[in-house]
Amino acid sequence: MTHLLLIALGGALGASLRHLSGLALLRLLGPAFPWGTLFVNVIGSLAMGLLIGWLVKRTGTSTEIKLFLATGLLGGFTTFSAFSLDAANLWERGELSLAFGYVVSSVLFSIIAIFAGLWLSRTLA
Q1: Apex CA 4: angle with CA 85 and CA 47, to 5°?
Q2: What's residue 40's pLDDT?
Q3: Among residues 84, 28, 65, 112, which one has the least CA distance to residue 36?
Q4: What are the angstrom distances between the C-alpha of 9 and each of 73, 75, 116?
Q5: Is the pTM of this model over 0.85?
Q6: How far apart are CA 108 and CA 102, in angstroms?
Q7: What is the mean pLDDT of residues 40-58?
Q8: Under a CB-based contact definition with an 8 Å cutoff, are residues 50 and 73 in contact?
Q9: Are 47 and 81 in contact (CB under 8 A)?
């Protein structure tokens, strides 16, 4: 139960930071392009890489810290960081075709799913 609470707390903080980042960039750069989403996805991926790289070099890092920071905080900030880590792991294992397929299918199917959800909600409403 403690693990779930740590993930929930980190997720709440990450989602709040994502929201505040989006608002700031919307006010700063305007609504013509989703700068806030791009920002949190890129920064979240950078942060995930830095965190995982740092954790790999350390021994004895608690599971609680990993869950709070990686799954909770960065997962709440952006799920794109987890996607990027998965793609990087496939790439580093030498599974380039699988990594490419994962990236393309994730992006393509996610966009198709968004449109499907929009269509369903409009059709059933």
Answers
A1: 30
A2: 93
A3: 28
A4: 8, 11, 31
A5: no
A6: 10
A7: 88
A8: no
A9: yes
